[in-house]
Amino acid sequence: MNFDPLTEKGIALDDQVRNWSELSVEPYDKMSVDPYTRCRVIAMNAIEVEAVMFSHQFARHLDIPEVKAALAEIRRIEQQQQKVVNWLTPAEESTLEVTLGYEQVAVDLTAWLARSEPDPYLRQTYDFGLLEDFDHLYRYANLYELLEGKTAEQVVHQLTEVMPGRPTQVEHRHPVDNIRRHYDKHTADPLSRLHALTITAAEQQTMNFYMTIGNRYMEPLARSLYAEIAMVEEEHVTQYESMLDPGESWFEQLVLHEYNECYMYHSFAGQETDPRIRRVWELHLAMEIEQLRVAADLMKRYDGREAAEVLPAGLPEPVLLEPNKQYVREVLATQLDLTSLGTGYVMDAHDRFQDNLRKVNAGGNPSERVIDAHRERFGTEYRLETEGRHPVERLREDALAGRR
Amino acid sequence: MVTTAVRPETGAVIKAGPMVTVAPDRLVQDQQFHDFGAGSGLGGPFLADQLSAFVAHERMGLNLLRTLHARTDNPTLRSRYGELEGETLQAVDTWERLIRGLGGNPQYASPAGRATEGLDNKVVEALLLSGSADPMTFEQAGLQAFLAGANQCVANVALLSAFAEEADDGAARETLTSAAGTLSQAAAGHADWATDMLRKMAVAQAKHPTTHKIGQAAEKAVDAVRNVVTPG
Fold first, then answer.
1. How far is Cα of residue A388 from the mean position of the Cα atoms in its chain?
2. Average per-residue pLDDT in chain A?
């Protein structure tokens, strides 16, 4: 029998409020942390940020005091949860190290979502984004060694490979070509709906993060690399949010958000290797169960629907953060040259795509300069190819070196 | 048992659309509807899309009635909304039987049905602005929302009757005619009731300003209670 948050008992909202010392949690140790624990922290922070921002948007579209009050009360708790989760990240972890964590999430979370996605078009959309985030990891890894003299392997270990994906310089599509088709709420497998919410939250937080911290560097190369990749994250948010069915009512979205939080905390509690952090996931799951109950009550009264009419009877198979090396290599080998035209994917470098590339790449690309700078300094690029040479011949280091 | 919400668990299927993706096992195509209403001389795919929208409207009507039932402070209206929910459930059943009788699938959510749901969703969401309305205004808005839905029901049944009239003689036509007969009385009755109730409420307030003042007093009382339960 699958875990069903609708039938579980959570923690009363009043009992969920934490004091300041409870919010100021002890961060994990960056030297000993499991990279996927770091990834889970980053992912759950993104989920909580999305919960908060969605709730604010919803609150701006109604004036029923009881509903606004309930949203505010839940939102306050979500904010506290976000603080607890995000404050697990230690200050001793540099911005670039956190960035490498963000991109490891983007690779291994996206790959898992793709592998488990039942809808072929949505799976294609995940694959498409996957190769771009995979490339970002490689660019930032090179910047990391340039600026901090350390290798990305110390952050991602050997769980995720670091090598070129779809080159960032050809990820800059015209905005029109970042729109995607959406799932249909009647027919979509519950996994598709939850996956879409999760990836939108994760990419949105990556976008927010780069928007905020990209200007914190003195080095022009770092500032410009963050700016270039931040613009790709804008593309990714546009892409992934398009997948959500706009026909879902506000309350349906609220219930789905709460349900997805239950799903993600339940997933991560089941695989967390750090007992202290597992207890955080378990505690937050118990909190989310009650928040879901409140959301379901609101939907029943103000939307005229039972939560059970829009939610599955139990949580789907848990989201799993694990290595996806072979999967990524397969996608690299077969889909590297894809771009998009409207909502579809094509191998054709069409006019609109090329026009946009000409505009934004006119002064060169920081994403290329960072590799050149690394090669100039160290005589080679930084790569972590644990499974052999790059599956695409022209992206192998010797092939690229010959072109530079 | 009728379906109140079409979803994967109930066997939902849709057609592909320019902005919609659908998994292959949930996909239907126009040619699969060519035999819908066979013998009627009517276009099967179009008819299937229309009937999907009509039943979707009834299902959304259930949502509206449930929220009105939960939110009204008027015992008479609450009781009536409860009755109407039961009658609307019967209407859903009639539409589903009709679709099955014509060889279709009541779990088909057509593009026209999506559009209908979008419209009806906004009707329900219009009531999320009730915080700026006094209780009498909210009750009026609720009735207006129901009347809008009921009038659409009347129009849908009229269209169904028109399809029946234009259909060739045969079993399909008989099925269409029978369903239209069953549905028309309830649809007209719902619209008439809402119109009458709106008239009574509005005229009472117009003729007897105290009624309006009672409404305002009730609002103050509700505010007082609200402030007790929601400090600050």
1. 27
2. 97
